Amino acid sequence: MPRSPAAKIHDSDCPIAFALDIFGDRWTLLIIRDLMLRGEATYGAFLGAGEGIATNVLADRLRALEAAGIITAAQDPDNRRRKLYSLTPKGLDLAPVILEIIRWSDVHDHRAGTPRDLARRIEKDREGVLADIRAGRPVSRRRNR
Amino acid sequence: MPRSPAAKIHDSDCPIAFALDIFGDRWTLLIIRDLMLRGEATYGAFLGAGEGIATNVLADRLRALEAAGIITAAQDPDNRRRKLYSLTPKGLDLAPVILEIIRWSDVHDHRAGTPRDLARRIEKDREGVLADIRAGRPVSRRRNR
DNA sequence: CTATTCACTTGCTAAATACAAGTGGATTTT
DNA sequence: AAAATCCACTTGTATTTAGCAAGTGAATAG
Hints:
mainly alpha, 8 helices, two-stranded antiparallel sheet, homodimer, DNA-binding
């Protein structure tokens, strides 16, 4: 039984510490990335997304993200055993954070493997990228393995 | 002997995963925050900064941040047993990420406890704040405990 | 020269993550 | 209509990481 980072460790009147209580771990932001950039939305898709999160940890993070109001889960109308996760407005509003992380990795280490077209778009058309994300249009497709 | 997140867990051609290998944990970004918002600091200052990081974890994170080229350590000219840590250009360039996290926490949860003046400055004078950080001018003084 | 400060280390316990193997209900296949 | 398969999880258990208390050694203060 893993305990998500939602288990308030910091709790110190600081907005960074506050945010880290929600996504300050190795996996949470990757789930948000999948939802935000790649349009992945199911449990199985997250598992297959490349980095190999453990099933119990994934379940725990999805619970925590839902509890934090960042994602919501809904039944897939076409398949009742499938759940579709999506970002709430609060989750979508993490887009600028995600974009700045991508930019930073891209600028400071080529091993980051940022897709060139995405890096260019973030630089030249940041508002357009943000608009795509807000509208739920995937910005970058999977490239890993 | 703790192992920092630098122990490449993800390693998947993705800039987000790449960045998380460096600061995807509960403490690393808080160290960067201390340096960025409050200026250069010592080991003791990090320990006393409010949230209560363990001494061994702090030592490990400082090592990892130095290895990643995000901070540098220098002897204090006035006291040879003291080390002064500061951000490299690569570390300073995380400023936009930090600012977006602050903005997000502030917008979505008042419990984040963002200093009002800082929140306003980020909104009204983002470039000014970034310039202060790049120039090493502290942006926000300590408020915690 | 004794006490204290400073940046750590070391040893141990507790918690979180990784890994392997289920479980149960919903579909698809035969 | 059974049987097999899919899907979103749960349940152990081993391994790794974090948390806590107590050092250590070099530098400085008294």
